[in-house]
Structures are given as C-alpha cells and as structure tokens.
Amino acid sequence: MKIAILGGHGKIARHLQTLFVEDGHQVRSLIRQPEQEAAIKALGTEPVVFDVEKDEDLAGALGEAEAVVFAAGAGPGSGAARKWTVDRDGALKLIEAAKAKQIKRYLMISAMKVEEPRGNEVFQIYLQAKAEADADAALRTSGLDFTIIRPGGLLDDPGTGKVAIAPSLPAGKIPREDVAEVVRQCLTDPSTIGVQFDLTSGEQTISEALRNLTET
Q1: Which of 12, 32, 49, 213 has CA 20 to 30 A from 55's CA?
Q2: Total of domains in the chain
C-alpha cells in the first residue's frame, strides 16, 4: 500500500515508518524542515518537505497515497497559535487533501480526553484544537474511512505490546512504540473504520484489544 504521513519526523511517526517498511508499504513522509530528510531516508521512506502552516497544495504532496496518517503536532513549548495552525488546521487540511485525491483511509493520532478542559491555558487550547479536528464532526462527517486513535500520556520507553483499548478509559500512559503498532494494525483492519478509541498500556495484546473493541 502507498501511505502518506503528515508529521513524518515525529517520534510516533518514525516508529510507524519502520513498521510500514517492514510490511512492504511505500511511504511518503511529509516533514517541515529539509534538514530532517536524511533521518527519514535512513528509515527507508521518501521524505517530502512540506510545511502545513505555510505551503500550498497538500493534495499534490500526498502523491499516489492510498491512505494517510495525521501524526503532526506543534510539540511541547509551542504557543497557543501553533496549536490551532498545526493540531487543528493541519488535520483539517489533510482531510480536504485526502478528499481531493479520493483517498478514503485516514488514521488520526489524537489524544485522550480532549473534551475535558485541564492544564494551563496553552494546553487547554491544544485540547480544543484536537477536539475540533476529530471529535467535533470534521473527520466524522468527512465521508472518509477514518480511525481516531487517542493515546494517553506518551512515553519513550520500549513498547510492551500490551494495551488497553476502549471508547473511554481512565487516564494513563503508553510507549510511543505501542501507539505506532496500534496504528499499523488499524491500517489494514476494516473493523476499525469509523471507530474512535482511547489507548493506554494494559493487559491485552494489541490484536486482542482491537478485536474486543470492534466485537462489542
């Protein structure tokens, strides 16, 4: 499969590219800075320099992709303005670009409890931006074959392969490696289309947790 990832230099995205390459997929990795190209090429994927806040023709940057992954984020330390322009507007632009290219499959890496205000002012804006991108109808009413994955607090620890997945979970954390593996499995699992779920570390294997989610 041909896949485009927006936010390709992010930590989850880099784990994900390694997994996709192992599966034999062709990956275009959309990155913001030219100096990130070497790291992306080393993963075996194709870097495409595209700044979602400034550049035009996101549809063109997707190439011949058959699926897209939104893995972009303004990141820690960024101000409120970039939460809107990246975390919300970037996701919305990718929705429109996917529709323009007739790409049906859209996987969104979001965050848990985005509807519950908490933290400082900037973090609350981040949550609102995420909510408007996925939960507040933009992706749900797009007509795309979406999956919205909402991980808890992200860790750089090695993945365990054991998770908890449900429409709603208590606050928790999860290694980025495990988030990437969940995205990998969702890509080719049609039962996850049209589904949104929370994700933390837990006691089930990823395949078990996804199966239990979609069978209920």
Answers
A1: 12
A2: 1
Question: Which of 11-20, 49-58, 66-75 is predicted with the least confidence, judged by mean pLDDT?
Answer: 66-75
SS3 label, residue 213: helix
Domain of 10, in residue numbers: 2-215
Long-range contact set of residues 204-210: C-beta below 8 Å, sequence gap at least 24: 204/162, 204/163, 204/164, 204/165, 205/161, 205/162, 205/163, 206/161, 206/163, 206/165, 206/178, 206/181, 206/182, 209/163, 209/164, 209/165, 210/165, 210/182, 210/185, 210/186
Token pair for 202: 């837990």
Q: What CATH number does the domain containing 59 carry?
A: 3.40.50.720
The question of whether 126 is a catalytic residue gets the answer yes
For the residues of 24-35, what is the DSSP string, one character each?
T-EEEEEES-GG
pLDDT tens column, 144-167? 999 999 999 999 999 999 999 999
Two tokens, residue 140: 């749900």
Identify the active-site residue in 50, 106, 126, 146.
126
Other CB atoms within a 10 A radius of the CB of residue 141 amount to: 9
Please check whether residue 5 is in contact with residue 16, taking contact to mean a CB–CB distance below 8 angstroms: yes
Put simply, whether the predicted model's pTM sits higher than 0.85 gets the answer yes
